[in-house]
């Protein structure tokens, strides 16, 4: 790209664009909108939604708030570890964040071994081997899809057992941001490469580097059709989503308008305030020829069928382009057009703001504080070429005053609720492929609408409470949580989760009054005691017709329908635990 043109060159370029795109008197012309703050949530407005009511919850201890915000759920063990990191809340938070932002220094071999022992076989396969074994191999449907299915189930295993909790949360964030639907028939066989080498490899690194890895990845080129993008038949699908979803956001879309009339960006006048349809068309042209080795009949090189990235020069539109206020000269070296556009995008101030708004929404609140968005965007943009750009930006967000004082401004989505449930209830069972109980969980998870990486549209799962507060979503999430507390281990050696064992270890059966049992499990699951009203409901349920303060509930599970305080006590205990899991206190973070 060339930063400046002479007046004559600019006039010639403008005439060429007007002729090419029919800009003179174009009926779809629209002026650039005024710069406004982005809407707080993603997706269309919920005009028919019921008005929201403010629910005031008790403020948990600082460790609980911090861990629920930055991990897949506080547990008694993680709270104790957090509180041992310093003498003040600020010191403990800083120590925890700095440790988690260096995941390579955290030993996570136990979860790696757990995955091996559970029969995961494709996670470490190279892209070429995934392509050979699961795309080109003469295999049944289940074997073809196994790499993606393993990645999908691995996500829950790591969310529950990994010591690198912040890294796992960040990985899920980028999967939603650069969404590729895992159950897509053509993407699923190579999804392991996308997860490992594209998302996980860059989750805390550099956004510009991640952009190119995404653009070159086999899964994304299949999902958004860039594998078939050529000058003789341009496909703008990837280019449009690159600008609309991956970088600028819809709030910076100016529609079909003359690119020479786009106002400068107030934060940096060297950049246009947003992008136009013509920027999409020109970007699509820049990425022509970026494809994959899929044995296309036009390819003649020896490694033409390994599923990897391939630049086919014969397909590339090597003519001049004008993108985001910059001229691209014709006949440039291989890949240079696309790479220069990625540089321009990654350094744009509005891109920094869009990315940081999403990060703040994920870690702080559905309505991101604008002050924090702006300060994070300044860090993000100042470090756009730094190898630890994302890590530095996340540190700024997580240690901010806004993040430290945030509570109850996020709602756990179904997957997050399930992961938190398994973590806090002492799960030692491993979710896997080809095991009945795992298949049961997988089937039930589908009804919640939040199977990992399986959102069909390219915008990824929404990250605001209104998208997950419908009766069906909540009902199916509660049903799944209740199932987890009740279901038997497929091995036949008791329940899936050791609720009775945890209760006996933490509270002697001779002390099992309703009040003590409710207090014990609220402290275990929530990390604090909920409101008096909530406690009263739970105590009444547990006590039935007994005195909640004095009657000792026996450690038995016998039938006694005529005396409900003695009727199936173990079942009632598990149901009381399930009620706590369904509470707003547990589902808020």
TrEMBL record:
InterPro entries associated with the record: DUF1800 (IPR014917)
One Pfam family here: DUF1800
Species assigned in the record: Luteimonas composti
Region ranges (Disordered): 23-52
Domain of life from the UniProt record: Bacteria
Protein name: DUF1800 domain-containing protein
């Amino acid at each position: 790209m060339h930063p400046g043109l002479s007046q004559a060159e600019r006039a010639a370029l403008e005439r060429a664009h007007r002729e090419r795109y029919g800009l003179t008197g174009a009926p779809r012309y629209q002026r650039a909108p005024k710069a406004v703050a982005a809407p707080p949530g993603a997706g269309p407005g919920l005009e028919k939604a019921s008005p929201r009511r403010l629910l005031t919850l008790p403020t948990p201890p600082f460790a609980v708030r911090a861990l629920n915000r930055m991990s897949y759920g506080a547990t008694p063990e993680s709270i104790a570890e957090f509180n041992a990191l310093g003498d003040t809340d600020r010191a403990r938070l800083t120590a925890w964040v700095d440790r988690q932002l260096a995941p390579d220094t955290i030993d996570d071999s136990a979860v790696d071994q757990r995955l091996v022992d559970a029969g995961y076989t494709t996670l470490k396969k190279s892209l070429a081997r995934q392509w050979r074994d699961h795309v080109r191999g003469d295999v049944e449907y289940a074997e073809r899809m196994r790499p993606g299915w393993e990645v999908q189930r691995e996500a829950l295993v790591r969310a529950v057992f990994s010591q690198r909790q912040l890294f796992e949360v960040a990985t899920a964030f980028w999967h939603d941001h650069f969404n590729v639907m895992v159950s897509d028939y053509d993407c699923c066989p190579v999804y392991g490469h996308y997860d490992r080498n594209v998302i996980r490899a860059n989750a805390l690194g550099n956004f510009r580097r991640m952009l190119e890895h995404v653009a070159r990845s086999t899964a994304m080129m299949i999902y958004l059709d860039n594998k078939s993008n050529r000058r003789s038949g341009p496909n703008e699908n990837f280019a449009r989503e690159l600008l609309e979803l991956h970088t600028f956001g819809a709030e910076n879309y100016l529609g079909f308008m003359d690119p020479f009339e786009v106002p400068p960006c107030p934060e940096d006048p060297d950049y246009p305030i947003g992008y136009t349809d013509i920027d999409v068309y020109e970007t699509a042209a820049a990425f022509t020829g970026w494809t994959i080795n899929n044995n296309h009949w036009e390819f003649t090189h020896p490694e033409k069928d390994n599923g990897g990235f391939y630049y086919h020069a014969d397909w590339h539109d090597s003519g001049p382009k004008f993108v985001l206020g910059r001229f691209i000269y014709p006949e440039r070296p291989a890949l240079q057009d696309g790479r220069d556009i990625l540089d321009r995008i990654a350094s744009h101030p509005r891109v920094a703001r869009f990315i940081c708004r999403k990060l703040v929404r994920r870690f702080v609140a559905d309505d991101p504080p604008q002050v924090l968005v702006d300060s994070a965007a300044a860090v993000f943009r100042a470090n756009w070429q730094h190898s630890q750009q994302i890590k530095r930006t996340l540190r700024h967000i997580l240690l901010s005053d806004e993040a430290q004082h945030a509570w109850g401004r996020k709602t756990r989505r179904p997957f997050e609720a399930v992961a938190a449930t398994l973590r806090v209830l002492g799960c030692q069972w491993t979710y896997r492929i080809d095991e009945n109980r795992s298949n049961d969980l997988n089937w039930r998870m589908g009804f919640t609408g939040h199977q990992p990486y399986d959102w069909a549209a390219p915008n990824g799962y929404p990250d605001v409470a209104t998208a997950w507060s419908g009766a069906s979503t909540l009902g199916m999430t509660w049903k799944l949580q209740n199932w987890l507390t009740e279901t038997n281990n497929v091995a036949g050696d008791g329940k899936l989760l050791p609720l009775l064992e945890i209760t006996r270890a933490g509270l002697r059966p001779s002390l099992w009054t309703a009040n003590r049992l409710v207090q014990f499990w609220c402290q275990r699951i929530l990390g604090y005691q909920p409101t008096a009203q909530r406690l009263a409901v739970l105590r009444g349920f547990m006590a039935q017709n007994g005195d909640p303060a004095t009657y000792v509930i026996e450690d038995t599970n016998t039938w006694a329908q005529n005396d409900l305080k003695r009727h199936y006590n173990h079942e009632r205990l598990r149901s009381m635990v399930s009620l706590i899991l369904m509470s707003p206190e547990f589902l808020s973070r």
